[in-house]
Amino acid sequence: MTAPDVERLREVGLFGGLNDEALESLGHAHEVVSAPVGSDVFREGEPGREMFVVLEGQVELYRVINGYETIIASVAKNDWFGEMSMLDILPRQATARVILPTTLLRLTAHDLDVLYRRDLKAYSLLVLNMAREMSRRLRLADAIVADMRALHRPPPGDPSHSD
């Protein structure tokens, strides 16, 4: 599969602020993977030392809760996923299933280590972009938890209300 060019990578927020040399290196040094509909990119509980950028297509991330698949996110062109295992070195928290024909750029922990050694500024920008997206996702998750708690709380004035 053909490596993405610099202009294509410039569209991906993860690579925001990286210079042409760093983008060229990322585009050519990493594996581009074609994933058919219904395939799993990775499964919940597996070890993971890689992340993926969606170049084309769509992937759903879900967890099995009480025997049911519960979708926790959907990612599409220019989004990325799987970065948590790159940072915390814990098993995958979800399964990533392809729902449209998808092309992915695969980045490994080794790839990031090589970038760190070659271009500290590019590495720092990439990790900062990753952290910003994780912060955005955490804020969204916090809002969902707050909404759910509010739904399960008795209204003010109800005798079971405990404030």
Would you tell me which CATH topology applies?
A: Jelly Rolls
Poorly predicted runs: none
Please outline the major beta sheet. Answer: 6 strands, antiparallel
Radius of gyration: 19 Å
Number of domains: 1
Number of helices, where a helix is a run of at least 4 consecutive DSSP H or I residues: 5
Shape: globular
Summing up helix and strand content along with how strands pair, one would put the structural category as alpha+beta
Helix fraction bin: 25-40%
Mind telling me the CATH class?
A: Mainly Beta
Q: Quote the average pLDDT.
A: 89
Distance between the termini: 59 Å
The CATH homologous superfamily: Jelly Rolls
String of helices and strands: HHEEEEEHEHH
Indicate the CATH architecture: Sandwich
Number of strands: 6
The percentage of residues in β strands lies in 25-35%
Outline the structure in words.
- The protein is an alpha+beta fold and about 160 residues long.
- Helix content is about 40%, strand content about 30%.
- The protein has helices at about 5-10, 20-30, 85-90, 110-120, 120-150; strands at about 30-35, 40, 50-65, 70-75, 80, 95-110.
- Strands 1, 2, 3, 4, 5 and 6 form a six-stranded antiparallel β-sheet that branches.
- Helix 4 crosses helix 5.
- It is globular and about 65 Å long.
- The termini are far apart.
- The mean pLDDT is about 90.
